TrEMBL record:
It holds the Pfam family PepSY_TM. The chain crosses the membrane at residues 12-33, 136-156, 184-204, 324-346, 358-381. Coiled coil: none annotated. The keyword NADP does not apply. This is PepSY domain-containing protein. It comes from Rheinheimera mesophila. The keyword Transmembrane applies. Keywords: Membrane, Transmembrane, Transmembrane helix.
Length: 399
């Protein structure tokens, strides 16, 4: 292939579904800092102080029992970032609410509904609110990223010499201006886009591993006999989990939704770049006996990749600095996509094309998907599908 052919391939990969890719890039960029956006919007999302040790689970449970006597805990989680409040999912029959708390003291900071800014952004970014079809559409964009990454080497010769030279001298309305900035931004964002391609390719692969039930992740144990009583209190279960793994920083707990499922406690140890679920303690809901311990550092490669993908994709494996770095690179990626669309328009506008002719069938399909995703997410993101009620004790019945 000659340079012109590579340029055409690069342009096609960037423009064909450019509007859809722009939506995914922008929502993903904002999703990286979605919890920080919530932090700025309402004090209930803010921790009161930095946590120095384990969460005081007993104090938290007592505070919940006083304020929400008729409710049951479904699950809870503590964020990686110290400045963010933890969240507890509470049920009372079909009624659901989030209750937020300070992880350092166990004090309650407020409550809210299912629909949040972070959920809106992640629902669009992950699957366009189109279920498994949307997941396939989004993750399939990773193949276009691969074409863009490879073709960029042939489109922008000697890029390594020009990364430190800021573009200058062209008017902002000219195609040269946009082309120079497009290339310069591409040089600096190439590694980030490669990371998005690799994690996106994994999400695509993982979807079909799950769909066709290909075993790739350790299975959770099942209870030998169905439980006939409510599970133990949060305090008792957390004490048992901490005793089983004293070094684990416990971050989350999920009560079972069926009578043969265990309680799942997750958290972080010194394993690098894995989400909380990599470290699991499975407990019997009624006796708190340890049924199984899963350690992130002992996972097989495919399972390890599964738990590493999210932290690498969203940058939530460290503090605010890393998230802001991801946010900046995400903006750069979004600028690349938007700039590519704009350059395509500048290149073709002299022909005065009709909108549909300019978009082409791929652009038209992309536009329809974008509109559908925005409308469906706006309608659905605050609606929660009814689950089975958790087999947890009613808070007011605790002693």
């Amino acid at each position: 292939m000659n340079g012109r052919s590579w340029f055409k391939l690069h342009s096609f990969a960037g423009f064909a579904f450019g509007l859809l890719m722009l939506l995914v890039c922008l929502t993903g960029t904002l999703a990286v800092v979605s919890h920080e956006i919530q932090y700025l919007s309402d004090q209930k999302y803010r921790a009161l102080s930095e946590r120095q040790g384990p969460v005081p689970w007993q104090v938290l449970e007592q505070n919940l029992a006083k304020a929400y006597r008729d409710y049951q805990i479904s699950n809870l989680n503590v964020p990686e970032q110290w400045y963010l409040a933890g969240a507890v999912s509470l049920h009372k029959g079909p009624e659901f609410k989030f209750v937020y708390f300070d992880p350092a003291s166990g004090a309650l900071t407020g409550e809210g509904p299912w629909g949040t800014v972070s959920r809106f952004l992640r629902n669009i970014h992950m699957y366009l609110s189109l279920g498994s079809t949307g997941k396939i559409i989004v993750t399939s964009l990773s193949f276009l990223l691969l074409i863009i990454l490879i073709s960029s080497f042939y489109v922008y010769r000697q890029w390594w010499l020009k990364g430190f030279q800021l573009p200058r001298g062209a008017k902002a309305s000219s195609r040269t201006f946009w082309s120079d900035w497009h290339k310069w931004t591409g040089v600096w964002c190439w590694g980030f886009i490669l990371l998005m391609f690799l994690t996106g390719l994994w999400y695509f692969t993982e979807h079909f591993l799950l769909k066709f039930k290909v075993e790739h992740y350790p299975k959770a144990p099942k209870l030998e006999q169905a439980i006939t009583h409510k599970a133990l209190s949060l305090t008792e279960l957390m004490q048992a989990a901490q005793k089983a793994r004293p070094e684990l920083d416990i971050r989350a707990l999920n009560y079972p939704l069926s009578d043969q499922a265990p309680v799942v406690v997750t958290g972080q140890d010194d394993t690098l770049l894995v989400r909380d679920r990599a470290n699991r303690i499975y407990l019997h809901p009624v006796t708190a006996d340890v049924l199984k311990i899963q350690k992130g550092g002992e996972l097989k490669p495919v399972a390890y990749i599964s738990d590493m993908a999210d932290p690498l994709h969203f940058g939530n494996f460290a503090g605010l600095g890393v998230k802001l770095l991801y946010f900046v690179f995400g903006l750069g990626f979004s600028f690349l996509v938007a700039g590519g669309l704009w350059m395509h328009w500048l290149r073709t506008k002299r022909q005065q094309p009709e909108l549909m002719r300019w978009l082409g069938w791929t652009g038209a399909v992309s536009s329809v998907i974008v509109v559908m995703a925005l409308v469906l997410t706006s309608v659905q993101f605050s609606q929660r599908d009814a689950d089975n009620l958790p087999l947890s004790p009613v808070l007011g019945a605790l002693r």
